[in-house]
Design brief:
heterodimer; A: 3 domains; two-stranded antiparallel ribbon; 21 helices
């Protein structure tokens, strides 16, 4: 018998470790790409200030990357330790992208980061730029593979359940990696990382501008970050819309929960701008609606029907009834895999197998043949995720996205007018904006994963079946351990980041350095390696002619 | 001769990229959009840096 407390604790443990881990990931995804932009300017112009900027933001990236890898490591093993049935059931499909993700993160990305940090004096400018681009590519490609794996959980494509081996088997690798959910989710997540990096760079630059330190670096970073950010935010909103469009077809229950839509409304349906969903009564206590907006927003048409929660629940009850014979046939096949009658019964009900599994949770002795109408009704109710939480978490994420867009628009305007220093209130606001993209990313993941419930693999494998059979005390102990350890990691990250930011870029620039960013000091690192920048070479020639 | 060589090299490269774009654009439109979009983001941000330097030089009356 499966212990529901263990399942819930396993969910809490994965959710907490994933949410902690994703506090580090988006900054890495975005900062690597931002560094590529910075170093491009350095290589094209030869101005040492851009090298200094790349090195400074690279130092912050390194702190974040190290702790991101540390928190990500445990998650790879958690699939096996806490979700062993899930790992066995979909290991053939899930294992490949997970392994490639590991290879990308620990070999390509880590190797290239090492070269990027330690290669300044050992590589030519062109070579180093390629390495920086490879770091950006590597970090995002490692995210790609884990999101392909997650895309399979959201919308399983390219695999089929084999009743003889009793597990999912891969049919088409291209269908797996090119699934619409995986594609849109990857781009949405990757660009959300760009937004995070842009806000982070703009916020830290605002700090320097307020303190009147490192002005030349801060002003350039702020300009580049706000332009980078405004375009990224437009991209992330566009991709959010794409994910909604894809989800409307693949996961109607999640979409109905995100919109608190209890009943199927005639198209075009109204949009619940704000509402107070009551899941027990299956209604909104109150709702502020915009007429006709939801249908075009979600389906990009005016006449496509969007099913409400009541309709979805009723359809799912029928699917549960249809799935029960599939589960019964599976039991017969496990005893005799060549039983033709059982195989024919399985094939006839195969598409609703997962729904049959759902009712086993409530059936006496977990035997679906003993399931009553009340058990089926309860299982059908379970197919609707937590509407209140999803509705509001999703809305807060969207509100944050538009807040960031507005911030970047003002940032771009002030920066283009070269008057950003004249707006101290805005600069202070930029500091307060730093946590916003991190929170938005967390909200996005909560929406995606909470909305997928009660499934680990949508329509195929219920969450309650997926967990390992640990004891409650083991789960409590490991949950407390992980949360404590990861909290320490966050504190270390914050401490190191704040210290590095207060310390600032290594060499003085801006008000205290004078000039407009050209390095007049000619540190040894600039001269070594045989690639002294254009302006450094000019300076060197000037010094030589004076000596003559 | 060298120019013709470069022309042919880049021409072939452009053809390969166009074919790849057609295939990728069809099978994986969002991945394709990400590749193009990220490249564009990097270049636009870099252009913002160049623009800042130009504005600074102009404001200080320094030679471009």
């Amino acid at each position: 018998m499966i212990n529901n407390t263990v399942v819930e604790l396993s969910r809490w443990q994965f959710a907490s470790t994933a949410l902690y881990h994703f506090l580090f990931v988006p900054l890495t995804l975005g900062l690597t790409v931002f560094l590529a932009a910075l170093e491009t300017v350095y290589v094209v112009t030869g101005k040492p200030i851009y090298r200094e900027m790349t090195q400074f933001w690279g130092k912050l990236l390194l702190i974040n990357f190290a702790l991101g890898v540390a928190t990500g490591l445990t998650m790879e093993f958690e699939f096996g330790t806490n979700w062993s049935f899930y790992s066995g059931f979909v290991g053939d499909i899930f294992g490949a992208p997970l392994a490639i993700e590991g290879l990308m993160a620990f070999f390509m990305e880590s190797t290239m980061i090492g070269l990027m940090i330690f290669g300044w004096d050992r590589l030519s400018r062109g070579q180093h730029l390629i390495v920086t681009y490879m770091v950006a590519l590597g970090s995002n490609l490692s995210a790609l593979w884990i999101l392909v794996a997650n895309g399979f959980m959201q919308d399983p494509q390219g695999a089929i359940f084999n009743p003889v081996t009793m597990r999912m088997e891969l049919q088409s690798f291209s269908a797996l990696i090119f699934s619409h959910d995986a594609q849109a989710k990857f781009v949405h997540t990757s660009i959300a990382g760009y937004v995070t990096a842009a806000i982070f760079v703009a916020g830290v630059s605002a700090f320097y501008l307020l303190k009147k330190r490192h002005l030349e670096i801060a002003k350039r970073s702020f300009r580049m970050a706000t332009i980078f950010g405004v375009l990224s935010t437009i991209g992330v909103i566009t991709l959010g819309d794409a994910l909604g469009f894809i989800g409307a077809h693949a996961q109607p229950a999640k979409i109905a929960a995100m919109e608190a839509m209890w009943e199927t409304e005639p198209a075009p349906a109204p949009f619940n701008l704000a509402a107070w969903p009551n899941q027990a009564k299956q209604e909104n206590t109150w709702a502020l609606q915009i007429p006709y907006l939801l249908t075009p927003l979600l389906t990009h048409t005016l006449d496509t029907k969007i099913p409400g929660i009541a309709e979805i629940e009723a359809d799912n009850a029928l699917r549960i009834k249809n799935g029960i014979p599939a589960v019964e046939a599976l039991k017969l096949l496990s005893a005799n895999p060549t039983d033709p009658v059982a195989m024919a019964q399985f094939k006839a009900h195969e598409k609703d197998l997962g729904y049959g599994f759902l009712v086993a949770r409530y059936a006496p002795d977990q035997d679906v043949s003993k399931a009553t109408e009340a058990d089926i009704a309860q299982a059908a109710k379970d197919t609707i995720p937590d509407v209140f939480a999803i509705y509001w978490v999703f809305r807060i994420m969207v509100a944050f996205a538009f807040l960031m867009l507005a911030f970047f628009v003002f940032g771009v305007i002030y920066s283009l007018r070269n008057e950003v220093e004249k707006h101290p209130v805005f600069l202070r606001f930029a500091l307060w904006m730093i946590p916003v993209p991190f929170l938005a990313c967390e909200m996005g993941w909560i929406t995606a994963e909470l909305g997928r419930q009660p499934w680990t693999v949508y329509n195929l494998l219920p969450t309650w079946m997926s967990a390992s059979s640990h004891s409650v005390s083991y789960m409590v102990f490991s949950l407390v351990g992980f949360v404590s350890l990861y909290t320490v990691f966050i504190v270390i990250e914050m401490y190191l980041m704040v210290r590095a930011i207060k310390q600032g870029p290594d060499a003085p620039h801006g008000a205290d350095a004078g000039g407009h960013g050209h390095d007049k000091t000619l540190g040894g690192s600039v001269l070594s390696g045989g690639y002294a920048p254009v302006h450094a070479k000019t300076y060197l020639n000037e010094q030589s002619s004076k000596e003559v | 001769m060298k120019v013709i060589g470069y022309f042919l090299l880049f021409f072939v490269l452009a053809m390969i990229l166009i074919v790849l774009a057609i295939i990728l654009g069809d099978a994986a439109p969002w991945y394709f959009a990400w590749i193009i979009g990220t490249g564009l983001l990097i270049l636009t941000s870099a252009a913002a840096g160049f623009m800042f330097d130009t504005q600074e030089d102009k404001a200080k009356g320094a030679p471009q």
